[in-house]
Amino acid sequence: MKLNALKPATGSVKTSKRIGRGTGSGKGGTSTRGHKGAKSRSGYSSKAGHEGGQMPLYRRVPKFGFNNPFKVSYKALNLDVLQSLASKTNASVIDLELLYSNGLVGKGDLVKVLSRGELTSKIEIKAHSFSKSAVAAIEKVGAKATVLE
Description:
Elements: H1 57-60, E1 74-78, H2 79-89, E2 93-94, H3 96-101, E3 110-114, E4 124-127, E5 129-130, H4 132-141, E6 144-147
Parallel strand pairs: 1-3, 2-4, 3-5, 4-6
């Protein structure tokens, strides 16, 4: 083996198209760009969303609705879900970390406790909001509802 005898494997290197090197090459004249128009010129780049004069999609589709930037949305959790979590983990306090680690809420979710189901164990529940009926059901068992800020 000698350095002057080295060459790449057959089929691994392709020769590039030699565009614009005369009509004899077969790729001269228009240089594979077709005839005339903006797309045949150098420096052409289409604007985003431009559809060649056709009414663009963002103008064809009507606008509707309103997104309130001040809306506060809560992730709802019911008492039966909290009871099953408490019996599964034997926890005395149910807080956001426990809910997150068990996949019930996301990292930045605000949690509201609702009253579906029944609570049987005396546990402390920490959440951002509680329904009135949920607070009544929690206090009836002797458990504690703590509102987070």
